[in-house]
Amino acid sequence: MIRIGTSGWRYPEWRDGFYRGIPQRRWLGHLARHVGTIEINGSFYRLQPPSNYRKWAAETPDGFLFSVKGSRLITHHKRLRHIEDALQTFTSSLALGPKQGPILWQLPSTLRFDEPVLKDFLAALPPGRHAFEPRHESFRTDAYFSLLQQHNVAHVVSDAPTFPCIEAVTADFAYIRLHGHDELYISSYDDEQLDGWARKIRDWDRDTFVYFDNTMKGAAPDNAQKLAQRLDVPLASHT
């Protein structure tokens, strides 16, 4: 299973391009007919009520999957420490049903690898798929990879000009975030770059989630569809 999509969907910058002629209330459904998955970003900034998740699930085709970005209260404010209550509150709010994909845990760039802290955090995670995106070079270590492997948590392979791209596959699925290779959140991926990512995904030979986060000038939907074509990935609405 390979799912390719975008990080978020509420972008006014897409209004005159990908969303031309589409009212804002229909943006999610429109995008979901062109990609197989979407990352929910709003969950990072504030706790979403279960009714929001149910609404988003209802607006997407059968077979569609969402990834959900974990709360910044856990990753950025508590910095993975003393998170039991916050984690329970966050995970109990999720109401996507069968459309629930992995939970993404994105770390702040100032957070260094701390083996005991990460070990406790991974042990506290509820069942299901989880993906971990560090943004500090200190995570490029076998001790980090080994911990993720023990818990079947995917290391997020992130492509960006401002934080390290650590290529490692640590779980029975892979998770990729493409933030823009040359300009963060802006630059489009050209044919050669898309061909390169397609080769990596084929070589990894496992379930894979790919999210284009180069959203600021509208490249993400087009890049997602072009990568899906290279990998012969059908739309969720066609499954």
UniProtKB/TrEMBL annotation:
UniProt-listed Pfam families: DUF72
Cross-referenced InterPro entries: DUF72, UPF0759_sf
Residue ranges the record marks as coiled coil: none
Matches recorded under Gene3D superfamilies: Protein of unknown function UPF0759 (3.20.20.410)
Domain of life, per lineage: Bacteria
PANTHER family referenced in this protein's UniProt entry, alphabetically: DUF72 DOMAIN-CONTAINING PROTEIN, UNCHARACTERIZED PROTEIN YECE
Full protein name: DUF72 domain-containing protein
Organism whose genome encodes this protein: Lentzea flava
